Amino acid sequence: MSQKLTLALSKGRIFEETLPLLKAAGIEVTEDPETSRKLILATNDPQVNVIIVRASDVPTYVQYGAADFGVAGKDVLLEHGGEGLYQPIDLDIAKCRMSVAVSAGFDYASAIRQGARLRVATKYLLTAREHFAAKGMHVDLIKLYGSMELAPLVGLADAIVDLVSTGGTLRANKLVEVEHIMDISSRLVVNQAALKLKRERLQPILEAFEKASIQ
Ligand code: PRT
Ligand code: MG
Question: Which domain holds residue 195?
């Protein structure tokens, strides 16, 4: 196998927050995904390419070896399941929390006390199912692909499970957080076969990432 490496990243915060870690490994991306329409970006190292994919597709590209390694949020990894992936480092980037939120006027505590069967909209079906099952709550989950904050406002759901960082989106839509499910950050994920076959190339990069991410 050639020692060419492909790194899968998503545009936006993960790309931006991975750049300093790449730099610590001596890798500089020479094209900007926000202005270029290219999906395969070159770096200063002819042996390293970056591919730009949807955040939730990063684990899939790495699992099948289309990318040797990638960066993905814990939220995405929990839904993917982690099959075929080695997850050596929590990079401590793209931090946020996963929470349950409801409309400001909705009495979540008393709905639970009364054993109401709540409708919950989310992109994170597995994590949400596990959270409510652990609490012994029966909920009907509604799968959405984005803009979860809208669901309680238009009567699609009583509650949402979504990511929160500043809380600004919740506030702007008159929603309040009622439960903190977990803290989220992004991890480096590595294809299990690549880790063995390209160890020589990957190991120094993993070490540089690890060193840079704990600073
Ligand atoms: O946008 P797209 O549909 O392509 O995919 P995505 O939303 O999964 O990608 P992206 O790039 O937005 O997020 C990538 C990863 O960043 C996620 O998988 C998380 O691990 C992490 N992350 C960190 C976040 C946030 N912070 C975050 N605030 N992902 C999303 N958000 C959203 C949140 O869903 C909500 O709509 O931002 C909004 C809340 O932000 P505040 O600051 O208003 O609270
Ligand atoms: Mg997004």
Answer: 3-93+184-212
